[in-house]
Amino acid sequence: MRVTGVTTNLPVADIDAARGFYTDYLGLNVEGFNLGWVARYGSPDGRACVQLVTRDATSPQDSVLSVHVGSDVDEAYAEAQRRGYEIVHPLTDEPWGVRRFLVRAPDGNVINIVNHRDE
Question: Cα separation of 63 and 47, whole Å?
Fold first, then answer.
């Protein structure tokens, strides 16, 4: 699996209420997307970003990280199964344009392994 990026997923109660701190104060003022339940904000130079998440739209559990793997997502899913890791949310083509699954790391953290169709 080839990792192309990692994004922190921060739990927030309300994206609109949290936005100002991350955009105005921290300067992550480029909105990559906002689906209402998840929004990504980044620096103008693209070197830093964070996702604010109220709750996952389709997974029964929220993730702490999104790991971008491009077209290797199917391979990553098969490898997670082979290693016996708990799959929290199965490999799914989501309506917002990603193919992903959520897996529990041995330390208990839930990780979103994702391919954005535009990557």
Answer: 22
Model confidence pLDDT, tens digit, residues 2-41 = 898 899 999 999 999 999 999 999 999 999 999 999 999 9
Distance CA 10, CA 52 (A): 5
Residue 35 confidence (pLDDT): 94
Q: What is the dihedral of CA 20, 47, 11, 39, to 10 degrees?
A: 70
Q: CA 67 → CA 14, 23, 25, 71, distances in Å?
A: 23, 22, 26, 12
Residues with Cβ < 8 Å from 52, sequence gap 6 or more? 10, 12, 15, 18, 19, 22, 38, 39, 41
What is the reported pTM? Answer: 0.88
Q: Torsions phi, psi of 89, nearest 5?
A: -140, 125
